[in-house]
Amino acid sequence: MKKSLMVTPRLPEAKAAFSRGTKVELDSVILMFISGTASVDAQGKTAHVGDFHAQVMHTYKNIVSILERENAGLKDVVKFTVFLKNMDDYDRFNKARDEFFEKSGLKREEFPASTCVEARLCREDLLVEIEAVAIVQKIKFFQGKQ
After folding, report:
1. pTM of the prediction?
2. Binning pLDDT at 50, 70 and 90, where does residue 145 land?
3. Residue 77 pLDDT > 80, yes or no?
4. Nearest to 44 by CA among 9, 78, 74, 72
């Protein structure tokens, strides 16, 4: 087993004691664990303060950028855990998620498992945070690196 950190130029290096993600290589697959990700820009500032829909979209774009850096994509995600500042936003979240998945070409039968909870987030101006788990076949991963 080999473990390494995942990074992306789209997001600043984490200042707290965590990484943006951890990649674990097993015999035939690579597991990717993406830390809680939010609507944060390259300078580390909250993007789209007060705009729930825009924060959801920006958060998913940040996750996709981490995945793409590792030659993976939304189709490789098997689980999302969503943290909403206010569960009253759940219906709006579902609509935004469906929109993002549709624009990304993800079909309903490819949707990953998902859990959504209400939580106090690390910044007052964040409305959503999402973490992800992805699995990539090693042959796909190494084909993309060439």
Report:
1. 0.88
2. low
3. yes
4. 9
86-113 core/surface letters (b: 16 or more CB in 10 A; e: else)? eeebeebbeebbeebbeeeebeeeeebe
Tell me the C-alpha distance between 30 and 35, whole Å.
Answer: 16
Give dist(CA 20, CA 123) in Å, integer: 17
Beta strands 128-137 and 77-84 are: antiparallel
Closest by CA position to 76, among listed 100, 27, 111: 111
All domains of the chain in start order, with CATH: 2-144 (3.30.1330.40)
| C-alpha to C-alpha distance for 64 and 112, rounded to whole angstroms | 14
Please return the burial class of 21, using the count of CB atoms within 10 Å of its CB with bins 0-12, 13-18 and 19+. Answer: buried
Measured CA to CA in angstroms, residue 42 lies from 51, 58, 62, 69, 117 at distances of 18, 12, 10, 15, 27
**Can you read off the two tokens belonging to residue 7?**
């990074």
